[in-house]
C-alpha cells in the first residue's frame, strides 16, 4: 500500500469507497462531508467579527551596564533593563539576538549566571574584519543602548548523569553556564577548554573556581594543536553526554572519534545551514513577477529568494524536509536534496540546497 | 493525566528544528507488540492517519505564513512545518511496510487522503472566505495538536510498551515523534491565537475533532484487525482488550484521553501548562534515530 503521490502530491482524490468495498457511500465519510460543509459556512460567518491581526514586536531595549576585558580581544557586556526590571529567565545554551547600532544582527550566547534575573552577560571576540564584533568593541560603551530579541535556546542541555564539555576559544560562552548547571546538579563532569594561549581564553578563573580538578585548560602553546578528537574525548566519564562548541574542524574531529570513545552522545549548536563550499553562481527567475535574481556562489537560492519573497516557506535548509519545494518551470537543476523522488525532479526544485547552471525559472 | 506541571522558566524559548531521521523496517514483525495485535493495530492507525494528516498541516501552515505579523512566531511555525513534514515521511515508511506483510490498508488510507485533501482542502474558496476557512483549519489543527502533545508525552513515559517487549525501532520512532510533538506543542495554538484566538472558535473545533478522532481510531483498529492476514479474521477488536491494554500501560486509557479534552475548554488554557519539554529534550538527546540524524549534519 502506498499513499498515492508521496510528499509533494496534492492531487484531489476521488470520493473513496466504503471500507469493505460495498457499493454504497461510506457512513463516516458522508457524515463528515455534511458536517464540514455546515462548518465551513459557520466559519465564513465567524470571519465577520474577527479582529485584525495585531503585529507583535518582541524587541527589548537594554542598556550596557558594564564592559570588561576578559581576555585578549574579548570583552564581556553586562546588559540590564533601563529601569532595572527583571528579565526573562533562560537556560544554559540560550542565546540573544543583538541588534547593533548599525542595524546588523548578531547572535551571542548568554554566558552569565542563570540565577541573575536582572542582567544578561554576553562575551564577544573581535574577529579580524568582523563587522559585528568590531562594532561591539569600538562603538558600544557603558550606557549604550542595544535592542535584543530572545533569549532563545537552540542548544539545550539535557539531564544526564555524566558530561564532557569541550570548548574552543570563544566557544566557551554557551558551555560556561552548562558547566555551572552540571556542577549544581551534582553530575560527574569534565571540561576540556582549548585555545591558542591562556591570555586569549576568557573566563579561565571563573571556570577553575567551579572545580579545578574537573577543568583542563588546554592552550596550544603548551600542548600543541589538538592532534585528534580522541585526545579531547579522553577525559570523558563513562557514558557521558558531550556538549561542544568551537571551530568547525574541532567539531568534525570530535564526531569522527566519538564512536570509539566513552562518550555516548554528542551535542553541538547549529548556526544555520553549513556553508556552501562547491557552489557556482547562477540566476533564478521568479515567473510570477518576472524578476531575475543572481545567486552568488556562496549563497543558496533560498537566501536570495527570501529577500524578494519574504513569505517563502522553508524549514531545515539542508535539503531533507521538503518544505522549500518550488515548481520548476525551466532550467537545468543540480538536485542536492535528499527528499525529492526521481520522477518529481523534472518539475520541482528544493531551493535551500539545489543549484543550477545558467538560469532557472521557478513558479514563485 | 494532564498534571499541572509548572511551566519551567525558559522552556518556551526552545528553537525548533527538524531532525532527518531514518528507520529500517525490514525486520519489523507484523505484530510489533509481541502477542498483542490489538495494541499493535491501534498504534498502527497513526501510521495510516499521520502521513496525510501531517502533510495537510504543512500545506495549511504554509498558507498562513503571509498572515503572520510576529517574527518569532514565524520562526516557530517554520520549525513546526519541517518537523511535521518529516513525521509524515517517517510514518508513511511504516505504512508501506504493512503491505509487505500482506496487510492492504489502501481502502482506509484512500479515505484518509480524501478527508485531508478534499474535505479539509481549500474547497475552491477565494478571498475572505478562503482566509476564514484557513483560520478555521488552524483551529482544527490546534485541537489535534492538543492530542498529539498528550500522546507524545504519554509515549515518552509509556514503560508498559518496553515491558511488553515492543520493537525498539518502532518505539524510537514513536518517541522521537512524541518528543517533537511535546517540543512544538504550543505552536499551532499560538498561531491560532495570533490570527483569531476567540474561545468559541477554538472550542467548537475541539468539539468536532475529539469525536472524529475517536471514531477514526476505533474504525482504523477494527479495519486492521479484520484485514490482518495472520489473524485470518478470527480476532476482532474488543473494548475488553483495550481496557486490558490500558491496564498494562501499552495504550493510554480511554478515560485519560477523554479527560484530556476538559482543560481545553478552560479560558486560561495554554499548551505549555501540560507536558514536559525537559523530558522531550532528554529523550531526543538519547534517541538512536535522532542521534544518528544529528551526527550526519
Ligand atoms: S528547507 Fe527543508 S528541504 Fe529545503
Ligand atoms: Fe507530528
Ligand atoms: Fe505536531
Automatic annotation (TrEMBL), chain A:
SUPFAM superfamilies: 2Fe-2S ferredoxin-like, Ferredoxin reductase-like, C-terminal NADP-linked domain, Riboflavin synthase domain-like. Residues 282-364 form the 2Fe-2S ferredoxin-type domain. Signal peptide: none annotated. Pfam families: FAD_binding_6 (PF00970), Fer2 (PF00111), NAD_binding_1 (PF00175). Gene3D superfamilies: 3.10.20.30, Nucleotide-binding domain of ferredoxin-NADP reductase (FNR) module, Translation factors. InterPro entries: 2Fe-2S_ferredoxin-like_sf, 2Fe-2S_ferredoxin-type, 2Fe2S_fd_BS, Beta-grasp_dom_sf, Cbr1-like_FAD-bd_dom, FAD-bd_FR_type, FNR_nucleotide-bd, MRET. Residues 1-23 are annotated as: Disordered. This is Ferredoxin-NADP reductase. It comes from Haloechinothrix alba.
From TrEMBL, chain B:
Pfam families: Metal_hydrol (PF10118). It comes from the Bacteria. InterPro entries: UCP07580 (IPR016516). This is Metal-dependent hydrolase.
Amino acid at each position: 500500500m502506498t499513499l498515492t503521490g508521496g510528499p509533494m502530491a496534492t492531487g484531489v482524490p476521488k470520493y473513496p469507497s466504503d471500507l469493505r468495498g460495498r457499493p454504497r457511500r461510506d457512513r463516516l465519510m458522508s457524515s463528515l462531508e455534511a458536517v464540514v460543509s455546515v462548518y465551513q459556512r459557520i466559519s465564513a460567518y465567524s470571519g465577520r467579527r474577527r479582529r485584525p491581526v495585531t503585529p507583535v514586536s518582541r524587541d527589548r531595549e537594554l542598556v550596557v551596564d558594564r564592559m570588561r576585558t576578559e581576555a585578549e580581544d574579548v570583552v564581556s557586556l553586562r546588559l540590564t533593563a533601563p529601569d532595572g526590571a527583571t528579565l526573562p529567565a533562560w537556560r544554559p545554551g540560550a542565546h540573544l539576538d543583538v541588534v547593533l547600532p548599525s542595524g546588523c544582527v548578531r547572535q551571542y550566547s548568554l554566558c552569565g549566571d542563570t540565577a541573575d534575573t536582572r542582567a544578561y552577560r554576553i562575551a564577544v571576540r573581535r574577529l579580524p574584519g568582523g563587522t559585528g564584533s568590531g562594532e561591539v568593541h569600538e562603538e558600544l560603551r557603558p550606557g549604550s543602548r542595544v535592542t535584543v530579541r530572545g533569549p532563545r535556546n537552540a542548544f539545550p542541555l539535557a539531564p544526564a548523569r555524566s558530561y564532557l564539555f569541550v570548548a574552543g576559544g570563544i566557544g566557551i560562552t554557551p558551555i560556561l553556564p552548562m558547566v555551572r548547571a552540571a556542577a549544581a546538579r551534582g553530575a560527574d563532569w569534565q571540561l576540556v577548554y582549548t585555545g591558542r594561549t591562556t591570555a586569549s581564553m576568557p573566563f579561565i578563573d571563573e571556570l577553575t573556581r567551579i572545580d579545578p580538578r574537573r577543568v583542563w585548560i588546554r592552550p596550544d602553546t603548551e600542548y600543541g594543536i589538538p592532534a585528534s578528537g580522541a585526545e579531547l574525548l579522553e577525559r570523558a566519564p563513562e557514558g557521558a553526554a558531550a556538549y561542544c562548541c568551537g571551530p568547525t574542524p574541532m567539531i568534525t574531529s570530535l564526531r569522527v572519534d566519538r564512536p570509539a570513545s566513552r562518550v555516548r552522545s554528542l551535542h553541538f549548536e547549529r548556526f544555520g545551514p553549513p556553508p556552501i563550499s562547491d557552489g557556482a553562481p547562477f540566476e533564478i527567475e521568479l515567473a510570477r513577477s518576472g524578476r531575475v535574481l543572481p545567486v552568488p556562489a556562496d549563497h543558496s537560492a533560498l537566501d536570495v529568494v527570501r529577500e524578494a519573497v519574504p513569505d517563502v516557506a522553508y524549514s531545515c535548509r539542508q535539503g531533507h524536509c521538503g518544505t522549500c519545494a518550488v515548481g520548476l518551470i525551466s532550467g537545468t537543476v543540480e538536485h542536492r536534496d535528499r527528499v525529492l523522488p526521481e520522477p518529481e525532479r523534472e518539475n520541482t526544485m528544493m531551493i535551500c540546497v539545489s543549484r543550477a547552471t545558467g538560469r532557472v525559472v521557478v513558479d514563485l | 493525566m494532564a498534571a499541572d506541571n509548572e511551566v519551567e522558566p525558559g522552556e518556551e524559548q526552545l528553537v525548533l528544528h527538524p531532525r532527518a531521521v531514518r528507520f529500517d523496517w525490514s525486520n519489523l514483525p507484523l505484530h510489533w507488540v509481541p502477542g498483542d495485535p490489538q495494541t499493535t493495530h491501534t498504534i498502527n492507525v497513526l501510521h495510516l492517519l499521520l502521513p496525510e494528516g501531517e502533510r495537510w498541516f504543512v500545506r495549511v501552515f504554509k498558507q498562513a505564513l503571509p498572515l503572520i505579523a510576529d517574527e518569532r512566531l514565524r520562526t516557530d511555525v517554520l520549525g513546526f512545518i519541517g518537523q511535521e513534514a518529516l513525521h509524515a515521511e517517517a510514518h508513511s515508511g511504516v505504512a508501506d511496510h504493512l503491505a509487505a506483510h500482506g496487510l492492504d490498508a489502501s481502502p482506509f488510507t484512500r479515505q484518509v487522503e480524501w478527508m485531508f485533501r478534499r474535505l479539509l482542502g481549500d474547497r475552491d474558496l477565494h478571498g475572505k472566505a478562503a482566509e476564514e476557512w484557513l483560520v478555521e483549519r488552524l483551529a482544527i489543527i490546534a485541537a489535534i495538536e492538543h492530542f498529539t502533545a498528550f500522546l507524545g508525552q504519554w509515549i515518552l513515559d509509556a514503560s508498559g510498551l518496553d515491558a511488553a517487549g515492543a520493537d525498539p525501532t518502532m518505539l524510537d520512532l514513536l518517541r522521537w515523534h512524541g518528543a517533537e510533538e511535546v517540543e512544538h506543542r504550543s505552536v499551532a495554538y499560538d498561531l491560532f491565537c495570533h490570527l483569531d484566538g476567540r474561545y468559541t472558535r477554538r472550542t467548537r473545533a475541539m468539539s468536532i475533532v475529539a469525536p472524529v478522532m475517536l471514531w477514526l481510531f476505533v474504525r482504523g483498529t477494527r479495519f486492521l484487525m479484520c484485514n490482518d492476514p495472520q489473524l485470518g479474521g478470527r480476532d476482532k477488536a474488543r473494548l475488553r482488550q483495550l481496557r486490558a491494554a490500558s491496564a498494562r500501560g501499552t495504550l493510554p486509557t480511554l478515560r485519560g484521553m477523554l479527560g484530556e479534552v476538559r482543560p481545553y475548554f478552560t479560558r486560561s488554557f495554554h499548551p505549555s501548562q501540560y507536558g514536559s519539554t525537559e523530558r522531550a529534550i532528554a529523550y531526543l538527546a538519547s534517541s538512536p534515530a535522532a542521534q544518528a540524524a544529528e551526527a550526519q549534519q
